[in-house]
Amino acid sequence: MMRRGQVPTRAYELWEQAGRPVDREVEFWLEAERQIEQEREQRKLSGPPEKR
Q1: Using alpha carbons only, what angle is made at residue 22 by residues 12 and 27, rounded to the nearest 5 degrees?
Q2: pTM for the whole structure
Q3: Where are the beta strands (DSSP E) in the chain?
């Protein structure tokens, strides 16, 4: 689950890095979601093994 605010913040950063283009909000939003989910999965896989 993504924390509230992560996606809008990342989408805004991506939008700014791209030169603030018009009419591409959805593209940046979806890319932000994808990046954050990928980072979460990487942390999950690289984390310490769970105690059983």
Answers
A1: 55
A2: 0.78
A3: none
Give the pLDDT score at 4: 78
**Angle at 13 (CA atoms; ends 19, 43), nearest 5 degrees:** 140
Residue pair 15/25 in contact (Cβ under 8 Å)? The answer is yes
Give me the numbers of helices (H) and strands (E) for the chain, helices first please.
2, 0
Token pair recorded at residue 6: 């992560």
Write the pLDDT tens digit of every residue in 17-42. 999 999 999 999 999 999 999 999 99
Query: Cα–Cα distance between 12 and 2 in angstroms, integer?
Result: 16
